[in-house]
Amino acid sequence: AHAHGKFAFMHSDGFIMDIYEHLIEIGVDAINSQLFIMPIEEIGQRFKGRITFWGELDRQHILPFGTPEDVGEAVNRVRRALWDDRGGVIGQAEFNKGYPLENIRAFFEAWWGPPET
C-alpha cells in the first residue's frame, strides 16, 4: 500500500494489545480495535505517536446504557490517552437502534469540543 501512496488500516476485535508492536513493524498506519477491553492508558504510553488509533467507543456498555456524562468521559479518556500530533485518534463509534439520542449527542459534542485534561 505504501509503495502506491496509500495507507494501511486494520480492524480487529478482541484483546490485541500484544500484537500492536508487530502491526507497527509491518507498516500498519491505523488500527481500529476494541479499546475499552484493553488498558487504554498503557496503549497510549507504549504506542501513541507511532500509529493512529481509529476511535472505537464502548458500544456494549457505555453508549447504550451509560449517561451522557459517561459518554463524554469515555471520549475524553480516549483523547487524553491516545491523542498525539504525530498520530492521534480518529473519532468513531457505532450507534445501534435504541441507543439514547442524548448519548449520541454527547459523543459528538465531546469529540468536537476542546479536549479535557
What structural keywords apply?
117 residues, mainly alpha, three-stranded parallel beta sheet, 3 strands, 9% strand
Number of domains: 1
Instruction: Please tally the β strands and state the result.
Output: 3
**Percentage of residues in DSSP E strands:** 5-15%
**N- and C-termini, Cα separation:** 36 Å
Anisotropy-based shape? globular
Please summarize the sheet with the most strands: 3 strands, parallel
Describe the fold and architecture.
- This is Uroporphyrinogen decarboxylase (URO-D) domain-containing protein.
- InterPro entries: UROD/MetE-like_sf.
- By secondary structure, the chain is mostly helical.
- The chain has one domain (2-112).
- Helix content is 38%, strand content 9%.
- It is built from five helices and three strands; from the N terminus they run βαβαβααα.
- A three-stranded parallel beta sheet has the order 1-2-3, with no helix packed on it.
- α2 links the parallel β2 (30-33) and β3.
- The chain is globular, with a radius of gyration of 14 Å.
